[in-house]
Amino acid sequence: MPNQYDKILKEILKDVIDTLIAKVIGLKIIKSTAIETKLQITNEREADYILLVEMEDGSSSLLHIEFQATNYFKMVYREMRYWIYLSEVHEIHPMQYVFYIGNVPLTMKDSISTETMNYKYNLIDMRDVDCEKFLYSDKPEEVIISILCNYQKKGVKIFVCRSKRRKR
C-alpha cells in the first residue's frame, strides 16, 4: 500500500517539482532533464574481516578491516558502501581500517567531502609501520607481518626459512 501512495504523490507533484526546486530549495536552474529513478543495483560484498569488539571502557563496536595491495582510486566509495551496509544491518557505525600493503607509493584517498556529506576511513600504509614491532616476536605470525612493513629503512634483512623434518 505505501508504494501505491508514493506513485500517486509522484504523479501529483511532477508538474510542480520545478517550483519546489526554485521556491523552496532556492536553486536557480536553467534546464533540468529527468533521468531514470529506479536504481537497481546488485552488489554483493565480502569484507576481509568484520569483528564485533568490546573495548576496555565497556563499549562495543564493529571493526571492519580490509587489506589492499594496489592503489584502487575508488577505494573511498567501496569503504563508504561497507559503512552504509554495516551501519544499516547491525545498527552500529563501524570503525574501518584499510591496510595498504602495496609496493608503490600510496595514492588512495581516505576521505570524501561534499557540500552535504563528509566520510572518512582509516588508511594505514604498512610501509610506514616500524617492522621492529613484529620482527623479534616469539610468534611466527607476527614475524610474518614484519615482511609487510618497510624494513629496508632499517637496513634489516629478513630471511624466511623452512625447516625440513627428518623422516623417522
Could you describe the 3D structure shown?
- With 168 residues, the protein is α/β, with parallel strands linked by helices.
- It has 2 domains: 38-127, no CATH class; 129-168, no CATH class.
- It is 29% helix and 18% strand.
- The protein contains 5 helices and 6 strands, in the order H-H-E-E-H-E-E-E-E-H-H.
- It has helices spanning 2-13, 17-25, 75-90, 132-135, 140-146; strands at residues 49-54, 60-68, 95-100, 111-113, 118-120, 122-125.
- The chain has a 4-stranded mixed β-sheet, with helices on one face. It has a two-stranded antiparallel ribbon with strand order 4-5.
- Helix 3 links the parallel strand 2 (60-68) and strand 3.
- It starts with a helix and ends in a 22-residue tail after the last helix.
- The mean pLDDT is 83.
What's the topology here?
Blueprint: H1 2-13, H2 17-25, E1 49-54, E2 60-68, H3 75-90, E3 95-100, E4 111-113, E5 118-120, E6 122-125, H4 132-135, H5 140-146
Parallel strand pairs: 2-3, 3-6
Antiparallel strand pairs: 1-2, 4-5
